[in-house]
Amino acid sequence: MQKVFSIALIILSIASIFLAEYFLSDYALRTFINICIFIILAASYNLINGVTGQFSLEPNGFVAVGAYVSALLLLDVEAKEDQFSLLDPHPFILAFHSDNFIIALLAGGFSALALSLILSFAVFRVRGDYLAIVTLGFGIIIKLIALNFAAFTNGVQGLNEIPKPDNFLYIVGSITIISIILILNIIYSKYGRAMKAVRDDEDAAFAMGINTFRIKTLAFGTSAFLEGIAGGLLACYITSVTPEQFDFLFTFQLLIIIVLGGLGSTTGAIIGAILVIGGSEWLRFLDEPMNIFGYQTQGLPGLRMLVFSIALIFVMLFARRGIFGDKELSDIIFKRFKK
Length: 339
Hints:
mainly alpha, two-stranded antiparallel sheet, 16 helices, globular
């Protein structure tokens, strides 16, 4: 029964992607793509932070790595020579090129994965708040590298006019579905159960024979790989990459999404991404002049974020463990069936 439910959800997701192109306006379609990218980011971040319980603040770093690697691969030699104005591009950067969009995304994902495997030896020597500080420092280092190694990244000016394939919606939608299936398969496997054991009591999990370092590294690496892929998608979506896009506020936005949805719940991460990204776009009309019962108001820039923040506070007051807690949608539905 649960397998039928999962297949039905996958078919519904595929249908939504195909229908989106025909029924949504250009603006709504761009918002839909943005939501899909943040679903990948939130679900992968939730794997290390919510499922495994490691308070990591690294996503902005891995997303930046994926975005820069994918962008540098997709830009051709002429585009790099035109855009690099601070320093001439390094010969390696000029030779670093591929027209294949999927190869560029995978290169971004595997670069983030390789970096995460190296980092795991350092970051998992500490726990809790100390882990948060170490991973926060990693994100800052990546941003500083992007700013100061201009021969590789074009410094503060970043990269522009990044090519985007015509069928971008279908690529983003497919990767979103594959990412969610991958993450759910990990969560419901023996490795997922070990991740939850590490989250609940790491010392007890270690005493029971679980290799806690390997489990945390698996979650960290999977999360980093998907964040790198999403970084490449984000770079092509907005067709530019700058160091300022990947500061701590980027990680903070993802943290809001997974806490709002419920730490440990992939369904919660999906709903959180829809509410935060879609909701903030839907409320954009509040920043513009409005006619309220015949009274014409002036535009109030920032009113949208004020209302959005108040709404978030109310949600968290009434759902202190997030909207879904640590449950999945299927767990809640089948629990009701059993009653």
